[in-house]
């Protein structure tokens, strides 16, 4: 299968935050919105209704747990939650801390182009470790933490 999300964990280890029970959590490479993360299911599914009730509840708890940590760490005005799948048909959540003084506020993050903000390798590692710590996970390099 040629799904970019299915291979993301293996192919982008510098962005790894944590392997959770149902999902993988990574930083988005573009950190124009600091703390912007992707949470994607371990198994290739496209819709919430493709999951059993138990797994769906587990995924939603992981979304909630990550969002709460991002809120605590980045202290945004609002967390944006996006579950689209139109361009990448693999269930993945965009969890984006938004601040009322960001250049696109209050519009959606895709409302207009912006200059991509890349971090150094060390800055990505630092951000991932801070998120992991705030979630309450051990300071691993993104290995299974639950």
TrEMBL record:
Gene Ontology annotations of biological process type: nucleotide metabolic process
Its keywords, alphabetically, are: Hydrolase
Which segment of this protein is annotated as the motif Histidine triad motif?
A: 90-94
Q: In which domain of life is the source organism classified?
A: Bacteria
PROSITE patterns, per the entry: HIT_2
What is the protein's name according to its record? HIT family hydrolase
Q: Which residues form the HIT domain?
A: 3-105
Molecular function GO labels = hydrolase activity
């Amino acid at each position: 299968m040629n799904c970019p999300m299915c291979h993301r964990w293996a192919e982008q280890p510098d962005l790894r935050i944590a392997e959770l029970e149902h999902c993988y959590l990574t930083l988005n490479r573009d950190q124009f919105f600091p703390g912007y993360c992707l949470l994607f299911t371990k198994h290739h599914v496209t819709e919430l209704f493709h999951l059993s009730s138990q797994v769906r509840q587990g995924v939603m708890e992981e979304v909630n747990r990550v969002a709460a940590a991002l809120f605590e760490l980045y202290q945004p005005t609002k967390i944006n939650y996006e579950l689209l799948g139109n361009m990448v048909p693999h269930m993945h959540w965009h969890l984006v801390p938004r601040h009322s003084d960001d250049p696109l506020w209050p519009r959606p993050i895709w409302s207009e182009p912006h200059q991509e903000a890349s971090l150094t390798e060390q800055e990505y590692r630092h951000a991932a470790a801070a998120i992991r710590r705030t979630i309450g996970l051990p300071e691993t390099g993104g290995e299974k933490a639950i």
